[in-house]
Amino acid sequence: MKNYFRFEENNTTYGKETMAGVTTFLAMAYILFVNPQILGDSGMDMNAVFAATAIAAAIGTAIMALWGKYPIALAPGMGLNAFFAYTVVLGMGIDWEIALFGVFVSGIIMILITLFKIREVIINAIPAELKYAAASGIGLFIAFVGLQNAEIVVPDESTYVALGDMASPTTLLAIFGLVVTVIFLVLGARGGIFYGMAITAVAGIITGLVEMPSAIVDSIPSLAPTFGAAFTGLTEVEWTSALIMQLIIVILTFLFVDFFDTAGTLYAVANSAGFVKNNKLPNAGRALLSDASATSVGAVLGTSTTTAFVESTSGVAAGGRTGFTSLVTAALFMLSLFFSPLLAVVTEAVTAAALIVVGVLMAAALKLIDWDKLEIALPCFLTVVVMPLTYSIANGIALGFMFYPITMILKGEGKNVHPIMYVLFFVFAGYIFFL
């Protein structure tokens, strides 16, 4: 094992790698409870999604550990799960089974893109500013969902949205959770989001706002409600040209967000560990293939896109340098399968803080956009604000990608726009105007 993971070359030990793996798990364990709640809103069985989340994370992380050999953990990603539930299923009216099929196809396409080494072409085709805008817009969308779950933002007939009753017990519990979570994060505590949720849940139980779980440990939940639904659902839906077009947009969005999120996360984590040499990441293809494979596996199990987690940097900071770190994290995800009864205490008020904080962290990419250039600022601004205001990640990406070629042509820089962007203009225009 030492030789396989090159412990001596990476100046590490079993002790360091194990502690790093535990640290990474604690930093991202919140996804075990947040993901079932978000996907549950789309009609999926929460217990089955919990099991799918844990198993997909374990398998994906293990693949990364044994093949990619990087201290990078994978799990169903925030943002993509929100897109799955609120945009695709609730917004477009697509059955969650068909949405899972879209996730599966996006994973297969990602595998092909990586195998045929055309990822660089795609990376260079889409302007960096639009990537930053998409990430930030998804962050605002997630934060908006968190504010709604906390009942801080509520519907209003006159103004569409308004400030909720800040004195209501549910809102006060959510605000308490937000304060506790922020304290942990400001103090640099690894796993701050998870600890914040745990303390909020305990506070909810003490105050009677959250029910005490019937048990802490139980048998592994059944995957039956979601396993293979991505394929069984194909025969139970009436296929129309409109549905096919919608599914293409869904797949493109899954692919776009996962592709750049994964590439960015891999680079960030690898760079913090000192793996990046001459602006290149060794074995990047293996790492990307590990991620793509995990996405397809997760879709079969019954969860949205599985992707690399930037929280892996916490494990790197704790000394993780090899795939053994990821192997430890994968084992802990498998062990977590026995803790499904805790889902009962993770209410919307408990997870609200996690959504808001994750949204803030994602919105940090706004600082990387050149706001002084209107031809860039306008499409980026539309991408960011349209997502939460229309409750659709796809709408934001579509309008941003449509306006970018237009503003660049008006600026006299149309020749600098990659041909792929012009193709996407017509694809997204068809989605916006005809669906």
From TrEMBL:
<feature type="transmembrane region" description="Helical">
    <location>
        <begin position="376"/>
        <end position="404"/>
    </location>
</feature>
<feature type="transmembrane region" description="Helical">
    <location>
        <begin position="20"/>
        <end position="40"/>
    </location>
</feature>
<dbReference type="InterPro" id="IPR006043">
    <property type="entry name" value="NCS2"/>
</dbReference>
<feature type="transmembrane region" description="Helical">
    <location>
        <begin position="324"/>
        <end position="343"/>
    </location>
</feature>
<keyword id="KW-0813">Transport</keyword>
<feature type="transmembrane region" description="Helical">
    <location>
        <begin position="237"/>
        <end position="257"/>
    </location>
</feature>
<feature type="transmembrane region" description="Helical">
    <location>
        <begin position="416"/>
        <end position="434"/>
    </location>
</feature>
<feature type="transmembrane region" description="Helical">
    <location>
        <begin position="130"/>
        <end position="147"/>
    </location>
</feature>
<dbReference type="InterPro" id="IPR045018">
    <property type="entry name" value="Azg-like"/>
</dbReference>
<keyword id="KW-0472">Membrane</keyword>
<dbReference type="GO" id="GO:0005345">
    <property type="term" value="F:purine nucleobase transmembrane transporter activity"/>
</dbReference>
<keyword id="KW-0812">Transmembrane</keyword>
<feature type="transmembrane region" description="Helical">
    <location>
        <begin position="46"/>
        <end position="67"/>
    </location>
</feature>
<comment type="similarity">
    <text>Belongs to the nucleobase:cation symporter-2 (NCS2) (TC 2.A.40) family. Azg-like subfamily.</text>
</comment>
<feature type="transmembrane region" description="Helical">
    <location>
        <begin position="194"/>
        <end position="217"/>
    </location>
</feature>
<feature type="transmembrane region" description="Helical">
    <location>
        <begin position="74"/>
        <end position="92"/>
    </location>
</feature>
<protein>
    <submittedName>
        <fullName>NCS2 family permease</fullName>
    </submittedName>
</protein>
<keyword id="KW-1003">Cell membrane</keyword>
<dbReference type="Pfam" id="PF00860">
    <property type="entry name" value="Xan_ur_permease"/>
</dbReference>
<feature type="transmembrane region" description="Helical">
    <location>
        <begin position="98"/>
        <end position="118"/>
    </location>
</feature>
<dbReference type="GO" id="GO:0005886">
    <property type="term" value="C:plasma membrane"/>
</dbReference>
<feature type="transmembrane region" description="Helical">
    <location>
        <begin position="349"/>
        <end position="369"/>
    </location>
</feature>
<dbReference type="InterPro" id="IPR026033">
    <property type="entry name" value="Azg-like_bact_archaea"/>
</dbReference>
<keyword id="KW-1133">Transmembrane helix</keyword>
<feature type="transmembrane region" description="Helical">
    <location>
        <begin position="167"/>
        <end position="187"/>
    </location>
</feature>
